[in-house]
Amino acid sequence: LPAAFQEAKPIIETIEAAGFEAYFVGGCVRDTILGKPLHDVDIATSAFPAEVKQLFKRTVDTGIEHGTVMILDHGNGYETTTFRTESGYQDFRRPDQVTFVRSLKEDLKRRDFTINALAMTAKGEVIDLFDGLADLKRGVLRAVGVAEERFHEDALRMMRAVRFASQLDFAIEPQTQQAITDNAALLTKIAVERTRVEWEKLLMGQHPDAGLKSLLTTGLYQYMPMMAAQKPMLQQLLALPDWHLSTIESVWTLLSWQMQLRDASAIRHLLKTWKTSNELISHVTAAVNALNALERSGRLTSEENFYTGLDALTTANQVATILGFGQDQAQLAQSYASLPIHDKHELAVNGGDLLKAKLVTPGPMMGSILATCLQAVITGKVENQQDALLDFARMVADSKNH
Ligand code: ATP
Ligand code: MG
């Protein structure tokens, strides 16, 4: 058993001692068998939520209506979910009705792919009711049961298939792939946010080419927001030499760039359509601006450095590296670090100082003078020192008054 399972073992043993069944399930079992690092340990149990809560001192109702209770133990949290079946799938989305059951088999049956339908006992014995182990060994993604039906129940599973293809470098089993091809249009029924999470995971996977190829061969990409006309763009992504993206910011920066979206409003339109946060929109806009500069001249001016910020600069350089015009990251960070100031609030004069020195009266002129001061400091024309800046501001004010 891996260390994370060792730590969780007493939880399972406590549930078993009370006369219920409990197993490790889902992604953590799959990743353990593949020898990959685990990010969370999920437990499935025959105990109902109220029964689970009685057995442990500290629990949180993280999703109690779906049967999920988080058990807190020694600084760890374990999502513990009652065996359940799902019904009443409406509009090809996940069900709004779940029924708790006492049978592990029923619970494993509702899971998406055979490699995700494995369970493991506290002793490390694998329970494999759908030949998931063989599929894991062969590197195959196969729907549990009849693929067509499973994608009708929840169309997001099609996106999950291509995302796992990318993360694991697995092939999608022919009938499962055919069912995706036939039902791809159902993806439009799925909330954009859920599709987005899978798309980001696909592009951050270790083998994005495997995921992209599956997207193209099944035609699923046509039903992703703003992607219907992007076949050439996706093919170009495939043609880029071995690449790896490690952040959501770099995912959207690369996509914006490849889609030729180079200005703020075009990027905003893409990201709003995909319902990302405003923070992400600002970051990607700054990173794409920096990419423009890097492509054009291989470097950023002081002002470009200042307005990009280190985080977006790092994103831009990660993407530039993939595109073949990346710079030495340490050198970029150094040139950013050597800016006289990194935030406009560090400027040694503010509006109040200008008023006190009787250089201006409140109004638009004040903002304009402050902006000129900021630019002078960033570009190294004037030192960020109050007296020097007041002298400079006086000069600017005079010239503006004449
Ligand atoms: P990850 O490494 O991304 O967490 P995961 O397999 O753990 O991968 P989760 O989304 O955390 O994926 O889901 C946990 C488990 O729940 C899955 O392994 C699968 O058994 C089941 N599951 C999740 N989403 C679905 C779905 N849409 N349809 C059917 N089963 C699902
Ligand atoms: Mg998981």
Automatic annotation (TrEMBL):
Reaction equations catalysed: a tRNA precursor + 2 CTP + ATP = a tRNA with a 3' CCA end + 3 diphosphate; a tRNA with a 3' CCA end + 2 CTP + ATP = a tRNA with a 3' CCACCA end + 3 diphosphate
Residues at which CTP binds: 27, 30, 111, 154, 157, 160, 163
Keyword Mitochondrion included in the entry's annotation: no
Segments forming domain CCA-adding enzyme C-terminal: 244-393
PANTHER family xrefs: CCA TRNA NUCLEOTIDYLTRANSFERASE 1, MITOCHONDRIAL
A family per Pfam: PolyA_pol_RNAbd
CDD domains linked to this entry: NT_ClassII-CCAase (cd05398)
Enzyme Commission number(s) of this protein: 2.7.7.72
Coiled-coil features, chain-numbered ranges: none
Gene coding for it: cca
The organism's place on the tree of life at top rank: Bacteria
Subunit structure: Homodimer.
Binding site for Mg(2+): 40, 42
Protein family per UniProt: Belongs to the tRNA nucleotidyltransferase/poly(A) polymerase family. Bacterial CCA-adding enzyme type 3 subfamily.
Known role: Catalyzes the addition and repair of the essential 3'-terminal CCA sequence in tRNAs without using a nucleic acid template. Adds these three nucleotides in the order of C, C, and A to the tRNA nucleotide-73, using CTP and ATP as substrates and producing inorganic pyrophosphate. tRNA 3'-terminal CCA addition is required both for tRNA processing and repair. Also involved in tRNA surveillance by mediating tandem CCA addition to generate a CCACCA at the 3' terminus of unstable tRNAs. While stable tRNAs receive only 3'-terminal CCA, unstable tRNAs are marked with CCACCA and rapidly degraded.
Protein known as: CCA-adding enzyme
Family annotation (InterPro entries): Bact_CCA-adding_enz_type3_sf (IPR050264), CCA-adding_enz_C (IPR032810), CCA-adding_enz_firmicutes (IPR023068), NT_sf (IPR043519), PolA_pol_head_dom (IPR002646), PolyA_RNA-bd (IPR032828)
Cofactor(s) demanded: Mg(2+)
Gene Ontology terms for molecular function: ATP binding; CCA tRNA nucleotidyltransferase activity; magnesium ion binding; tRNA binding
Extra remark beyond the main annotation: A single active site specifically recognizes both ATP and CTP and is responsible for their addition.
GO term, biological process aspect, one: RNA repair
Residue positions binding ATP: 27, 30, 111, 154, 157, 160, 163
Record organism: Lactiplantibacillus pentosus
Domain tRNA nucleotidyltransferase/poly(A) polymerase RNA and SrmB- binding: 169-229
Residues of the Poly A polymerase head domain: 22-142
Keywords tagged on the record: ATP-binding, Magnesium, Metal-binding, Nucleotide-binding, Nucleotidyltransferase, RNA repair, RNA-binding, Transferase, tRNA processing
